[in-house]
Amino acid sequence: MKIGNIDLGERPVMLAPMEDVTDPSFRLICREQGARMVYTEFVSAEALVRNIASTARKLHIDERERPVAIQIYGRDVEPMVEAAKMVEAAQPDLIDINFGCPVKKVAGKGAGAGMLRDIPKMLAITEAVVKSVSLPVTVKTRLGWDCENKIIRDLGPRLQDCGIKALTVHGRTRSQMYTGQADWTLIGELKGDSRMEIPVIGNGDITTPEGCRKAFEEYGVDGVMIGRGAIGAPWIFKEVDSFMRGAPVKVEDAEKFALLRRQIRESIDRIDEYRGILHIRRHLAATPLFKGLPDFRHIRIRMLRAETADELEQIFREIEDKYFG
């Protein structure tokens, strides 16, 4: 699969952009584990244009991450164009436009998935951003605003006509948020539409190598994007990649612990101990490594309340001794 001149190989599996998740350390780990391309946290166009320091920091790219995309979102043409130019100066491999974020603070203000209620403006923004930069531009969106307005079959070709180089579709509507199951049927129908010439990438509920293979084989997508399935489990890319190559590798528990420890250490190094641990709690809460362990509730509470690296390390050792020894 190619996005512009970026060759990601056959059946690429990528790390989805996720706010407060896809920081530089996590992106690099996922690349090392086999993700063919990674995406930054989404970047507010208006905040970038206003030169908000915390937003500008999101443009930092480690050369080892490549290929890497920076994702932007906004609700007006001019700030999106200006932000796209600023992003281009940071030299990512491509620019992605977020028309899919469902959270109220974004969609409720007309950006992200909120743009699904104003298709003319969505198309105007897309066309203007494409024309303003030389990098490949892609779009990530959803099936539609709600179940009565699943418009992706019509919307996909129109976005393609704006000049984007790939389209990622999350198999839910905005009204669904992240509830229920992702519906890949319409993603498959869009991919099968003779009008579509650019790559179609599917996203939603991919948490196993088998699920990834099903997405390729049953729905014919060009690529798969993994989001929440990677939180606390960056090794999913190694397991998926090896499975897709026909030589499945099961990542051992010791390696999983090592990766979580690395995330903790690098999160602390990047911010500071207190905030770095707060940041990493989402991964610790979600990791499948601890799911199903008997009598784990009290240890989990302690783990998610820990405030220092030493506390976390002590708890990790207890977990290893009790459950993995």
Pick out its properties.
TIM Barrel, 14 helices, nine-stranded parallel beta sheet, 44% helix, 2 domains, 325 residues, 13% strand, alpha/beta, two-stranded antiparallel sheet
CATH level 1 class label of the largest domain: Alpha Beta
Category by helix and strand content: alpha/beta
CATH superfamily of the largest domain: Aldolase class I
Beta-strand content estimate: 5-15%
Overall average pLDDT: 96
- Level-2 CATH architecture of the largest domain: Alpha-Beta Barrel
User: How many H/I helical runs?
Assistant: 14
Number of strands: 11
Structural features, described:
The chain is globular. The chain has 14 helices and 11 strands. The termini are far apart. It is α/β, with parallel strands linked by helices and 325 residues long. The strands form 2 sheets. Strands 3, 4, 5, 6, 7, 8, 9, 10 and 11 form a 9-stranded parallel sheet that branches.
Q: Brief overview, please?
A:
This protein has helices at 24-33, 45-49, 53-56, 77-89, 104-107, 119-132, 152-161, 185-192, 209-219, 236-244, 253-270, 273-286, 297-305, 309-323, and strands at 2-3, 6-7, 13-15, 38-39, 43-44, 68-73, 94-99, 137-142, 167-170, 200-203, 223-226. With 325 residues, the chain is of the alpha/beta class.
Write the layout of secondary structure elements.
Layout: E1 2-3, E2 6-7, E3 13-15, H1 24-33, E4 38-39, E5 43-44, H2 45-49, H3 53-56, E6 68-73, H4 77-89, E7 94-99, H5 104-107, H6 119-132, E8 137-142, H7 152-161, E9 167-170, H8 185-192, E10 200-203, H9 209-219, E11 223-226, H10 236-244, H11 253-270, H12 273-286, H13 297-305, H14 309-323
Helix pairs in contact: 4-6, 6-7, 9-10, 11-12
